[in-house]
Specification:
Layout: H1 2-13, E1 21-26, H2 28-40, E2 46-51, H3 54-60, E3 68-70, E4 73-77, E5 85-86, H4 90-95, H5 98-102, H6 105-114, H7 118-124, H8 126-130, H9 134-152, H10 169-183, H11 190-206, H12 210-221, H13 237-248, E6 260-266, E7 269-274, H14 278-289
Helix pairs in contact: 1-2, 6-7, 6-11, 10-11, 10-13, 11-12, 11-14, 13-14
Length: 290
């Protein structure tokens, strides 16, 4: 919140106009805060964005979602406001730390599971992906962003199709909030949490089916976490389980009594559904994460 207010105070002090430009260069948090400030100041000025994490490059750089965390609730304050232009740099991709690069891959896998099976074929070529050859990665990035555009272009405010882009996020956000509250520091990158969240949502709907094992195999292929067993100390597991469970009910997509999640009846097909079986949430957390 203070960061946002500092930006707004600076804009006021320097007398920025509606034709002034904010250029943000950073990951999802930087893009979200800059986008939110751009949307609020004089009800909107020009925002240009250069994403610098793999997760931002293939996901959050477009779509218009802005937001900040408030009272440790993820994206609890935000608006919808699109950057006028987004610039993806091959040099930035080449310079990303290994973990930062790989942490973006679950978001790419998400697109393949919910809509475009072709993306999964590209991800199967581990050597091509990890070599970061831009001619190959640019195809994956293009397919990923096209899939996102397809799902949000007629549903910017998430009334229907766009909700499918949240596959994995109901559990991912609860995992992130639980770990952050317990340790006051980032233990998982957002993309890593999304990978775990996807496994949870598949398990909640169908158990350990073929899609579950395909997703888990892909996470293992790139050395991404597929559970929290080696991340959480034994004496903290009971507390973390309870926190994850409780945070599921803070789901921003919830419109009634039940949190919502995305289920995958088959690869390339996604459906929005409600989490009505509370006991199943606990089973999912226990069997998938621990």
């Amino acid at each position: 919140m203070n960061f946002l207010l500092n930006i707004l105070n600076f804009l006021l002090k320097k007398q920025f106009s509606k034709k002034s430009v904010i250029i943000s260069c950073g990951g999802g948090v930087v893009g979200d805060v800059a986008g939110l400030a751009s949307s609020l100041y004089l009800r909107g000025l020009i925002h240009l964005h250069i994403p610098t994490t793999m997760t931002a490059i293939i996901d959050s750089c477009i779509g218009g979602k802005t937001g900040i965390n408030y009272n440790k609730i993820i994206n609890s304050i935000g608006t919808y406001y699109h950057p006028q232009s987004v610039y993806i740099s091959r040099n930035i991709i080449g310079l990303l730390p290994e973990r930062e690069f790989i942490a973006g891959l679950p978001e790419i896998l998400k697109y393949g599971l919910i809509n475009n099976k072709k993306i999964i074929k590209y991800l199967n070529n581990k050597n091509a992906v990890l070599s970061r050859k831009f001619s190959y990665l640019s195809k994956i990035i293009k397919l990923s962003l096209e899939t996102k555009i397809k799902l949000f272009k007629n549903d910017v405010t998430e009334e229907g199709e766009r909700l499918k882009l949240n596959f994995g996020h109901t559990f991912a956000h609860s995992i992130e909030m639980a770990l952050e509250k317990n340790s006051n520091k980032e233990i998982l990158r957002h993309g890593e949490a999304v990978g775990l969240g996807m496994l949870c949502e598949i398990y909640y709907a169908y158990g350990k089916n073929k899609t579950f094992y395909l997703a888990k195999k892909m996470l293992h292929k790139y050395g991404l976490p597929s559970d929290l067993k080696n991340i959480i100390k034994k004496n903290k597991k009971t507390v973390i389980k309870k926190m994850i469970y409780n945070f599921v009910f803070l789901d921003k997509k919830r419109i009634g009594k039940y949190p919502r999640y995305i289920k995958i009846p088959q690869i390339g097909v996604a459906k929005v559904s409600e989490i009505e079986n509370f006991k199943r949430i606990k089973t999912t957390i226990d069997k998938t994460l621990f």
